[in-house]
Amino acid sequence: MAIDFSKYIASVKDFPNKGIVFRDITPILQDGNLYRTATHELAEYAKSRNADVIVGPEARGFIVGSPVATELGIGFVPARKPHKLPREVERASYALEYGSNSLEMHKDAIKPGQRVVVCDDLMATAGTLRASKELIENLGGKLVGAAFYIELPDLKGREKLPDVDIYSLVKYHGA
Q: What is stated as this protein's family in its record (predicted)?
């Protein structure tokens, strides 16, 4: 029997004046069985995409992606906010509802030809996914999929990246 993860995701008004609702995954993370099950489902997706590497965008992507990589026995690469990584980095910018930001990855993090799946908690407008895709491709890798706990289809993230295969545990309409 499949788990209805939506029952374990809390909704909180994040920016009430803009109507943005934050989806909190803490209830899933607090329950070891739920967390293992969610991790396993994302790992099965990444395995089906023949992933060589998992990329997790800062910071919840670390919580989601790292255990997926561990379950599969493959590498995990963090995509960090600016100036948090030592050594030489590649940078990609992305737009937000309230400004812009960027992600960085070590220049040697992805080897040419590696198949990469991005894992994160939420896909909304696909800003961090687009930046991750740019970093992966600039480093010679191939983005073969993206896996999320939560997707907000009304924000049209999929439409902004029609060439990316996307998997999510829960889709919330009326973002």
A: Belongs to the purine/pyrimidine phosphoribosyltransferase family.
Task: Assign 160 to helix, strand or coil.
Answer: helix
Catalytic residues: 60, 97
The tens-digit pLDDT sequence of the chain (175 residues) is 578 888 888 776 665 555 556 677 888 888 899 999 999 999 999 999 999 999 999 888 999 999 999 999 999 999 999 999 999 999 999 887 677 889 999 999 999 999 999 999 988 889 999 999 999 999 999 999 999 998 888 888 899 999 999 999 988 875 5
Q: Is 6 helix (H, G, I), strand (E, B) or coil?
A: helix
Distance between CA 111 and CA 138 in Å, rounded? 11
pTM over cut 0.85: yes
What the block records as the tokens of 104 is 């960085």
Let me know: does 72 contact 145? Beta carbons within 8 Å: no
Domain 35-171 CATH (choose: 3.40.50.2020, 3.40.50.10240, 3.40.50.2300, 3.40.109.10): 3.40.50.2020
